[in-house]
Specification:
The protein is an alpha/beta fold and about 210 residues long. It has helices at about 10-20, 35-40, 60-70, 85-95, 105-120, 125-135, 140-145, 150-160, 165-170, 175-190, 195-205, and strands at about 1-5, 25-30, 50, 55, 60, 75-80, 100, 125. It folds into 2 domains: about 1-135, Response regulator (Rossmann fold, 3-Layer(aba) Sandwich), CATH 3.40.50; about 145-205, Winged helix-like DNA-binding domain superfamily/Winged helix DNA-binding domain (Arc Repressor Mutant, subunit A), CATH 1.10.10.
Amino acid sequence: MIKYFIADDHNLFRQGIILLLSKQGFECRGEFNKPQELLSRLAIEQPDIVLCDITFPDYDGMELAETIKKNYPNVKVAILSTHKEYFYVSRAVELQLEGYFHKDVDLPELVRGIQKILKGDKFYCSITSQIVMQNILNTSKKQIPTLTAKEKEVLKLLSEGNSSRKISEILKTSVRTIDNHRAALLKKFQLRKTTEMVKFAIENNII
């Protein structure tokens, strides 16, 4: 029987997955809505695989996955998330995670994927595999959004750790205008967090 932990801060989704997988012969050994609780439990018991989300209120799910791989190399880790942006998928590849499932995956593919992972394979669901293939076929330049001069200026100031209020003072404009620029940038990068956007921009020499 496959034993797993699941970490997701949406109770209904988490409990639904547990119910569906139980009917496939999987045993949930722990469910967690806080990554810290998962890490504490791992110190006591290691399952075959951990399914974890990316977005938590006070924790980065990718950092959680990285911590698990570093401290428990024999435990398989697969992302189960609504995120399908290449930034996240490539990060999972970089961390050598065993799998990545989008939450739109159907149950047979999820079950098949977990089984393949436990046989030693990597498994990225069809949705995320298409994203990886698209990136391979396209040049990295095509993946970088086109920014206006003002957006680049705001992005650079954000990368220096400035708040919206501080940037508004530097550029002599309103805080609301800066917040609008920030929102537009996040939309273009298809990201939700400024820290992730800044990291991507630095890694790709945008700023």
